[in-house]
Amino acid sequence: MRPTKEMNDLIQQGEIVGAMMLTITAMILGDYRGKGIGKLYREWLAAFVLWREDTLLNPMTYTEVANVLGVPPTSMERACDAVVAKGLALQIDGKYARNVEYLVTRLDSSYFRSIRRAIIEAGKALEKVFGNR
Fold first, then answer.
1. Which of 50, 79, 120, 133 could join 42 in a cystine, given CB atoms 3.0 to 4.6 angstroms apart?
2. CA distances, 10 to each of 63, 119, 125, 127 (Å)
3. Mean pLDDT, rounded, for 33-50
4. Would you say 97 and 89 are in contact if contact means Cβ atoms under 8 Å apart?
5. Where are the beta strands (DSSP E) in the chain?
6. Residue pair 22/55 in contact by the 8 Å Cβ criterion
7. Can you name the residues that pair with 90 across neighbouring β-strands?
């Protein structure tokens, strides 16, 4: 089978996104010294859901977070509690919300800058390969 332009573009996409995800993962892991990635995966997903929209105005139950992800609520309760313990989220009347103070204290951190650079570079590289399609 002879590679087509579309196939080569998709291979490049995989390389670009893979490099970006490795940088992001390495930076986030650096903030979680001593914990393995397997134990962190659900915590990260919970944090991503809570940070995706303004949960300070509309806090979410762990069941709502689980429903967004399509996972069992019992495991998401532990993940949400861990995210609160880490400082990424707050618990408000039994619900969970993002903790903006977590970012405020890290505005100039090297890992946030590295994550931002990785995303920007990936976006530019994908645009170069795919243009507007």
1. 79
2. 36, 18, 12, 13
3. 81
4. yes
5. 89-92, 95-98
6. no
7. 97
| SS3 state at 61 | coil
- Residue 92 makes CB contacts below 8 A (sequence gap 6+) with 59
In whole numbers, what is the pLDDT of the chain averaged over residues?
87
Domains of the chain: 5-130 (1.10.10.10)
CB of 62 within 8 A of CB of 80?
yes
DSSP bridge pairs for 129: none
Q: Where is pLDDT greater, at 79 or 5?
A: 79
Q: For the stretch 105-130, what's the b/e string if a residue is b when 16 or more beta carbons lie within 10 angstroms of its beta carbon? A: eeeeeebeeebeebeeebeebbeebe
